[in-house]
Specification:
about 0% strand; Four Helix Bundle (Hemerythrin (Met), subunit A); binds protoporphyrin IX containing FE; 7 helices; mainly alpha; about 190 residues; globular
């Protein structure tokens, strides 16, 4: 149980969850269309993209190290097909659903030029399902799921994403110039899309 692979796998999982929470916050701020103090729109979009790819790397390391560790008896199938695992199939399956949705969201941005803004927006909004599912997976599947430190990390992730949603929904009420028109993500940073 206490193999270094197992500790590394949990560490990568927690890091990935924090990175994806930051990705959610930056995505919500980009979509709000109002300037973020201290950051240009392009900087927010660029950090959003880089953080999401780093998060994907950490999730890959999370799943890889936990697959190499024999404890959870993970199979390659469990990486993409949910709820068929040997270890806590429901809670672990949520992790697999989160990975599948992450791939849909990232693919939508890599293919954005070909699928158009409307389809991109529909596919990219899968992020709003992916993130809470990953939070539930961590809570229910993790050895530390009910430990104080992980509960604090999960609470900080949930409260900060919640604050960003609140800022997007109600921030315009306080903005001097009133509600902002819906904005498309920056397109001239072609490689961002
Ligand atoms: C976006 C996708 C995912 C995220 C963010 C994520 C994150 C996490 C986190 C934070 C934990 C708790 C670690 C702890 O208690 O210290 C965890 C546990 C676990 N995850 Fe994931 N996970 C994801 C996907 C997956 C997938 C696809 C699998 C399997 C194929 C998986 C297998 C596991 C296992 C076996 C555990 C239990 C490890 C332990 O004892 O803590 N995860 N995950």
């Amino acid at each position: 149980m206490s193999s270094s692979l197992w500790y590394a796998g949990r560490g990568f999982g927690v890091s990935a969850l924090c990175l994806f929470s930051l990705v959610m916050i930056l995505g919500i701020l980009t979509r709000a269309g109002r300037p973020v103090p201290g950051l240009t729109r392009f900087a927010v979009a660029a950090i959003h993209r880089t953080t999401s790819l780093t998060g994907l790397l950490f999730v890959s390391l999370h799943v890889l190290t936990l697959t190499l560790d024999p404890y959870a008896q993970l199979r390659l199938l469990d990486w993409v097909v949910p709820f068929v695992g040997n270890y806590r199939p429901v809670w672990q399956g949520l992790g697999t659903v989160a990975v599948d949705l992450t791939l849909v969201v990232i693919a939508s941005s890599l293919l954005r030029r070909h699928i158009g803004l409307r389809t991109w927006r529909v596919l990219h909004s899968a992020a709003y399902l992916c993130w809470p599912v990953a939070i539930l997976h961590a809570f229910g599947n993790g050895t530390d799921g009910h430990s104080e430190w992980l509960l604090i990390v999960l609470a900080v992730c949930v409260l900060s994403v919640g604050a960003a949603m609140g800022w997007r929904a109600f921030g315009s009420a306080f903005a001097a110039e009133g509600p902002s028109p819906a904005v498309a993500p920056p397109t001239d940073l072609a490689d961002l899309s």
